[in-house]
Amino acid sequence: MTTQTLNIKTYKLGPDAPDELSAEDTQRVAEFLHTHLDEYGDALEDIQACLVYAKERGGSVTYAEEDGEILGAVITNRTGMSRFIPENILVYIAVHGKTRGRGLGKQLMEMVLDNMEGSVALHVEAHNPAKKLYERLGFTNKYLEMRLQR
């Protein structure tokens, strides 16, 4: 019987950060998120654009893998603002369906938050079960977000 080991990797991104996240792993993370965000997801091109933004302006990528398979991933971006808008936004987080309910999402969130400086915002649908995790981690609902889509 082989023992599987969960490996969590975090990469700080930005103009002053070392570019340690390979193009292959960047693509793997984007494809994982596109597949596992389910109904809360975006187009692959949008996830890839988020990664480009993080590499150019600042942010991070954290992902967990076991035996070469990604089981969870998080992307954050720096907003370039402070006080009136949080300095960071957690843009994407997803865990593989086979790991849900085992604490991997919480583990990833705690690792990401421990490695960030400044306030953090995230958007979550009211009916998303992950909302309870975010509240347990200290996130509060300060505003009702409204958008005008054009």
From TrEMBL:
This protein's source sits in the domain of life called Bacteria
Which CDD domains has this protein been placed in?
Answer: NAT_SF
The N-acetyltransferase domain covers: 19-150
Show the Pfam families listed in the entry: Acetyltransf_7 (PF13508)
Keywords, alphabetical: Acyltransferase, Transferase
Annotated InterPro entries: Acyl_CoA_acyltransferase, GNAT_dom, YpeA/RimI_acetyltransf
**What protein does this entry describe?**
GNAT family N-acetyltransferase
Q: Which species expresses this protein natively?
A: Deinococcus arenicola
